[in-house]
Amino acid sequence: MSRASSPISSGKVSQLKKILFVAMQMSTHTVRWINQLSDAGYDIHLFPVNHLPAHPDLRGVTIHQPFPIARPRHALKQWAKNVVLRLMGRHPATPPVVPCPVGHVYGVPVLTRWMPYLNARRMRLGESDQTAPVIYGPRVLGALIRKLRPDLIHSLEFQHCGYLVLAARDLLGADGFPKWLATNWGSDIYYYRQLEGHRQQISRLLRSVDYYSCECERDVGMARELGLTAPVMPVMPNTGGFNVEVAARVRFTHQPSKRKLIMVKGYQHFAGRAMVALEAIERCADLLKGYQVIVYTASPEIHGRVDELREWLKIDIRLLHHVPHDYMLRMFSRARIYLGVSASDAISTSLLEAMAMGAFPIQTNTSCCNEWIQQGVTGMEIPQDNPHVIADCLRQALQNDALVDDAATLNWTTVVQRLDERILREKAKAYYATILQGLPAQPALEGQAGTTDDSTGIAALSVMS
User: Fold this and answer.
1) I need a labelling partner for 387 at 20 to 30 A (CA). Which of 11, 23, 71, 456 fits?
2) What CATH number labels 244-418?
3) Dihedrals φ, ψ of 131, to 5°?
């Protein structure tokens, strides 16, 4: 196994505690959470959920791929050479240093040319219809667990990652299985508990974990109802916090009431309701002269609708495709209003970004936004399926300068008190210190959710640091 960016020197047995993350290796949420531990002194490993490359900002982690990411022939020749060296009693040569080393699960690396076939073969993970590629399935994960013997497995997200760990646990048996911390993201419980197969699988997962964490107090209660008896880690965001000093320099450039930009979340899928958001925008067309509407992360289904609003109602509306995170934050710093409409969500990172950047947040009550905003004062909760009500809220935010300016001031106080990345980073480290080092548990670990202040957070603003 090649190693780099690791405190373990070549040829020595690690004395550090091993954490195995089962996570979406390409997700910025995964990156921002794991990178909080970069200086915590753990031996960190990651089992990916598919063949996609890891996010380039992921650091200090051994990624366990079932096949070489690149140069398969070179990797196979190196493997054969290392076998010969071991047979001769000599230690294999130290591999070159790379940002994220790759540890192979199989003894023989799988050739890249086999990848499309192996990745297309899928298997069910349990009671629900959720599947995983066989090559990234529970048997492969189980083999890694037996080989690595981690002190803790941490699954980030339920449907792709938590279900996979649960299936591996079924194969290996509960006796002797490593400690398991499961974190639910977004709609993992709130939405999927409505589907019978998923409800059964979520319930069995929650009864199997040793520790549980989430970013909404709301989700703690639902998890308890579904059978959770394990300790609950202090509620905090899944992606860390803001560099508040940098955020302050950006957000105060434009006074909210003077801004002429509206940010609209563009998801249209099982949870996203961008079509409803655009209908509300249409109903406010008479107030939008001089404003620009930006629809970001737009699903293909809404592109035609955006064109209609531009061509027929002459609304200055455009799509914003994939851009760096710091660019998005600067867009929020120029926005008067943020609008997010969905059938299911957790905190909603966009809500918190809007608060931090001074935009007035309007968010559906299917999220846990009520844990962050005061209705009609620092933001507005809206229904997911009523464009008339949403349009009325938009009109208030468009016409009432004092409302948006006062909300920005109050929300900044919340950001400073509850979203400082330095505080949240230490809180994240405390998760692992409590589990792995036997430090005294915080009150939330005694079977109760954290306080409201513990339920805070936002995607780290490290890109702007």
Assistant:
1) 456
2) 3.40.50.2000
3) -125, 165
Strands 131-133 and 122-124: antiparallel
State the Cα–Cα distance between residues 229 and 290, nearest whole angstrom.
54
Neighbours of 312 (CB within 10 A): 10
How far is Cα 9 from Cα 350, in angstroms, rounded to an integer? Answer: 41
DSSP E strands in 110-192: the ranges are 122-124, 131-133, 152-156, 179-183
Single out the residue of 100, 83, 101 nearest to residue 92, CA to CA: 83
**Structure tokens that stand for 145 in this block:** 């667990």
CA dist 297 to 73, 266, 340, 413, Å? 38, 5, 11, 28
Decide: 215 and 457 in contact? Cβ < 8 Å. Answer: yes
Tokens of 11: 């040829």
Distance CA 207, CA 166 (A): 10
What is the CATH architecture of 18-225?
3-Layer(aba) Sandwich (3.40)
Which amino acid does the sequence have at 372? W
Instruction: Tell me the C-alpha distance between 138 and 173, whole Å.
Output: 12
Instruction: Convert the pLDDT of each residue in 49-72 to its tens digit.
Output: 988 888 888 888 999 877 554 555
Contact (CB, 8 A) for 415 and 356: yes
Q: Are 233 and 312 in contact (CB under 8 A)?
A: no
Over residues 113-147, the pLDDT tens digits come to 566 676 778 999 999 999 999 889 999 999 999 99
